[in-house]
Protein: Histidine containing phosphotransmitter protein
Organism: Aureobasidium pullulans
Amino acid sequence: MPAADTRSEEGSSGLPDFGDTIDVATFEQILEMDDDEEEREFSKSIVFDFFQQADSTFDKMDDYLEKKDLAQLSALGHFLKGSSATLGMTKVKESCEKIQHYGAHKDETGTRDEPDDEVCLKNLKAVIAQAKQEFKVVERQLRKFYHDDE
């Protein structure tokens, strides 16, 4: 008879296969702080606080995109990049890094200057939409992991 979850390989902490959206080693470090592996209250509170933080930050990004405020978009990208990296949210982190670069008048890698505001704004619009989509994917995965998939 097959195991309950045959679609994923589980690591030492019983994590499902998150694919390339979450760095398991980083996320496991957060889980190690939980007192109770069944409830996982500590890690859950950190992750769910991040969900609220990301939603709020994406709302601010939409506002600054409308205002064409590249500097603020860069700062918000930097901020969300750090938070997502701490939790191991790889794809969200990578997209936020691009937001940071485009807002700073750079290319997506941050190595070449891009002096044209309109080019930067066009790139920002696309990568912010991509980051939101990647966030929704990881949010669904983690809500399921924490048995909070509404």
